[in-house]
């Protein structure tokens, strides 16, 4: 069947994907900002998904803990600028969101892609939730890809785990390297 997606494997280089943010800048989503050495990329379905709104708002509570371990954060979706602007009214976030993730970029990330159930839901194919942690070498340290909005990593567990992984005394390798 030709519609199987290719998944990003642990240890692989994260693809170069540049997207705009509402402040008018274009960011390379896998590259951490200044003062950070790792990047957490959260792919969400879009404005139409109430579970995504809830997850993004919960993520706000973990930004300081992520900063403490030098993990930068960005969320991305296939929504348009207008859809993201509309969504901001129900978001209480303190991290950047990029928009305009194309179907080809979704495929490059290995995200599952869905069509809307109706025009009222949204007007474009969208990525199902995915999460990538990119290390200082630009490689995928952690990956979690879901095919529906009901399965997502627990943020407290993820944040604690990243702190443990990044502690040099634990000498924790990238896991899942056998394909």
TrEMBL record:
Superkingdom: Bacteria
Q: Which GO terms describe its molecular function?
A: peroxidase activity
User: Ranges for the Thioredoxin domain?
Assistant: 8-167
InterPro entries for this protein:
AhpC/TSA (IPR000866), Thioredoxin-like_sf (IPR036249), Thioredoxin_domain (IPR013766)
Classification via Pfam families: AhpC-TSA
Q: Which PROSITE patterns match?
A: THIOREDOXIN_2
UniProt keywords (A-Z) are:
Oxidoreductase, Peroxidase
Coiled coil ranges (UniProt) are none
Q: This protein is called what?
A: Thioredoxin peroxidase
């Amino acid at each position: 069947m030709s519609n199987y997606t290719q998944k990003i494997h642990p240890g692989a280089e994260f693809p170069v994907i540049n997207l705009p943010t509402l402040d008018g800048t274009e960011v390379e989503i896998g590259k951490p900002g200044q003062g950070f050495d790792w990047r957490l990329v959260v792919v969400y379905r879009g404005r139409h998904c109430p579970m995504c709104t809830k997850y993004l708002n919960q993520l706000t509570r973990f930004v300081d803990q992520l900063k403490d371990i030098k993990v930068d954060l960005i969320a991305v979706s296939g929504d348009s600028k207008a859809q993201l602007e509309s969504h901001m009214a129900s978001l209480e976030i303190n991290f950047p969101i990029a928009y305009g993730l194309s179907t080809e970029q979704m495929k490059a990330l290995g995200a599952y892609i869905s069509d809307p159930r109706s025009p009222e839901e949204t007007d474009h194919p969208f990525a199902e939730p995915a999460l990538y942690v990119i290390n200082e070498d630009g490689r995928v340290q952690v990956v979690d890809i879901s095919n529906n909005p009901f399965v997502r990593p627990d943020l407290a567990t993820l944040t604690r785990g990243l702190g443990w992984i990044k502690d040099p005394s634990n000498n924790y390798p990238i896991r899942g390297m056998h394909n």
